[in-house]
């Protein structure tokens, strides 16, 4: 796998998180495989390889890949999903420059990993802890991601925590994208290369 393909898959993780957030906010439902991949990737901070982050199977990022294809093919796509994805990239950029906050996130995440080993990665206690981690760290920035949807759903039990946990997963993939050399301007100037990289991976 080359660098452009790794960039494309990391970006697919960002769009997968944006899509799942939109699904949760509007319908309360979500793709379970996409959801589990996002949560596991957040907890996997020391992977044996790049592929281990998303569980080795490309279809684990299928929701994000399909969303990106719609965008690049200029098919109708949710404006909210695009807004969430761009906001995640912007917020990850702020976090990347803030070493103190990175340390705080890392320390909290290591505690949640211990919890996940005991209960399982998608247990409600773990999701609640990931949501609290996001709220106590990234939500303290002046720039915040505003999630729109059904107010009754967004205020239902565990929904705020689920949404925040997925946003945290989006940040994880956005940081991964940066680590692979990805930059926001590439979304405009290098769409063709990203689209081609995804097509090569799915041959």
TrEMBL record:
Matching InterPro entries = HflD, HflD-like_sf
Q: What is its main location?
A: cytoplasm
Q: Name one GO cellular component term.
A: cytoplasm
Keywords, alphabetical: Cell membrane, Cytoplasm, Membrane
Membrane topology per record: Peripheral membrane protein
Looking up Gene3D superfamilies in the UniProt record yields: HflD-like (1.10.3890.10)
State its location(s).
Answer: Cytoplasm; Cell membrane
PANTHER family in UniProt: HIGH FREQUENCY LYSOGENIZATION PROTEIN HFLD
- Say which family it is in: Belongs to the HflD family.
- Identification of the protein by name: High frequency lysogenization protein HflD homolog
Q: From which organism does this entry originate?
A: Halotalea alkalilenta
Gene symbol of the encoding locus: hflD
